Amino acid sequence: MNPSPNLEDPRWQRLEKVRGYMQVDPANRHLRDEEIDLLLDLRELDAARIKLDLALQAEPGEPSLLFRLATLAMIKREFADAEKLLTGLIAAGVREPGVAYNLAYCQFVQRRFADTRQTLTSYPEARQVPAAIPLEGRCLHHMGELPAAQELLHAHLAQYPEDVDALGLAALVCVDQNQFKEARELATAALRRDPNRIEALIAIGTVDLNEENFEAAAAAYQQVLSINARDGRSWLGMGIIMLLSQRLPDATECLRRATEAMPEHSGTWVTLGWCLVMQNHLEEAEAAYRHAVEASRAFSEAHGGLAVVAALKGDKEVAKRSMEIARRLDPGSMSAAYADALLSGNAKDAQGLSKLATDLLQSKGMLDPQNPSGRRLIQQLTLLGKR
């Protein structure tokens, strides 16, 4: 049930005027369309649908009405229905920027990133919508084409340096390429214009996490979660902070929330697996690593994690097979090295396991803030946007 109208809202005031004019001129299409647009803007969706149905009875197939019907479906998050209506309009020869852009957006929300790019490139009128370039950049980002996304966004920002949407996304793309200095600059510029820009907050939180400034990183992630409680990257970031602070039950909860939001992200499952191994919850850890393998069979640390669990269970043959796969994918697999040390008897109790893990991480330079190789522990655990 919609709340009572706020009669001080100019939109409601305008709606009352339009309805008054329509009593004098009920056949005026412009007034009819304005009434529907106001109802959509005010989220009076049932009233808007009634008006649209009546209008379409009078003008079946009218493109402007079908576009508004698609808009109604989008507001209700019925993106497949909206896509059908918008595809029909394009097939009928409608070449309006909003039609093509909204079609691309519907495809994006359904995670059909290649289709989204195809729509944006096939119908150039879509690019007249200011949000089109950031939308294409998000597609490239999700598809793992980070240099292409960066090139597209930098070219756009050279022409539109105040585009806060592009600034925030560009910061995130830089983070996912370990370009932390530029990421901070872009994120800071975005947050000056919009303090609640989610992608900029995630970017600056990740930069702070990488620099081991946990308090600042947590503040950024918590701000994101106050805006969107299902943001997977922020739950992952919080989980890593808790993990590195040895708050393992809290880390487990955060990481589980992250996997709920990003079930396709192998790095999140691997991080959860490490957290569970550290608590000796081996069955749950194995399940997490298997999810990681399902999400990305080419990710060495997922197979290495299974090797660790098998080694801890004493199943040497399974451990060796998983180690072989992990090292075939990445000869420097941290998890495979950990499993190897377990099999060789270098760690036989909880204290030994902890010392072994620390020794392995330090030997790889992962705890050294000045290490230029990009393989420190935090970077290894986050794996944001890469798996």
Automatic annotation (TrEMBL):
Highest taxon in the source lineage: Bacteria
KW Hydrolase (keyword) present: no
TPR repeats: 198-231
InterPro entries, per the entry: TPR-like_helical_dom_sf (IPR011990), TPR_rpt (IPR019734)
Keywords: TPR repeat
Record Pfam families: TPR_16, TPR_19
SUPFAM superfamilies reported in the protein's UniProt record: TPR-like
Key word Amino-acid biosynthesis present: no
PANTHER family, alphabetized: CELL DIVISION CYCLE 16,23,27, CELL DIVISION CYCLE PROTEIN 27 HOMOLOG
Protein name per the record: Tetratricopeptide repeat protein
Organism whose genome encodes this protein: Parachitinimonas caeni
